[in-house]
Design brief:
alpha+beta
């Protein structure tokens, strides 16, 4: 799996002008950084995170736990979409990142509801309607 994402990163960086979607990004990270096996001698995912905007690359990723994601990546995120969260350590991180008042709403979200937080400080709670 790690070699796969490294190869995807190389192709994405070479192609440019795209939206790179990474499901479960936390599996590629460990101890607050991208795993060595992902980086090898060419830290392509870090390169995309830091310089991808110059190549027209946007990134959308998912992770079950925000703290599993590499700190470098988290620090550059401009938007979070979060479902119900109750784990104290995750709440502590999110309170520092999105504000205590916003984080306090997360344990009370109903099934399928989610909060969108943007780095300008704005938030909205999305309540999907049954079809």
């Amino acid at each position: 799996m790690l070699d796969h994402w490294r190869a995807v990163g190389v192709v994405a960086y070479a192609a440019g002008n795209l939206l790179l979607c990474i499901d479960e990004l936390g599996l590629l990270c460990e101890n607050g950084q991208f795993k060595h096996e992902v980086k090898n001698d060419d830290p392509i995912l870090e390169k995309i995170v830091h310089f991808g905007r110059h190549r027209g690359i946007r990134i959308m990723s998912t992770s079950q736990l925000p703290t599993d994601i590499a700190l470098r990546y988290r620090s550059l995120c401009s938007e979070f979409r979060m479902f119900k969260i109750t784990e104290p350590e995750h709440m502590k991180y999110l309170a520092a990142r999105i504000g205590k008042a916003n984080a306090a709403k997360l344990p009370h979200l109903e099934k399928y509801w989610f909060m969108v937080w943007k780095d300008d400080g704005s938030t909205v709670i999305v309540r999907p309607q049954p079809v």
